[in-house]
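User: Hi! I'm working on a homework problem where we have to compare a predicted structure to a textbook description. Could you give me the structure for the chain below?
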Amino acid sequence: MRLLSFEKVSKDKVLYAHANRVLHLETNPSNACALVQKHGNQDVWINPPHIL
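Assistant: Happy to help. Predicted structure tokens:
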């Protein structure tokens, strides 16, 4: 799942709240998916949590 870019999220409180909610919803290891966010000219990849 692709999040809005860091630049957009850091400048708008509503977009930040939306991105934060998506991040929170993707913390459940049983159904989370990887998240990708553009930061400058690079992408940051966040893997889902490991099932213990």
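For your comparison, note the following. The CA atoms of residues 28 and 49 lie 7 Å apart. The longest strand covers residues 35-39. Good luck with the assignment!
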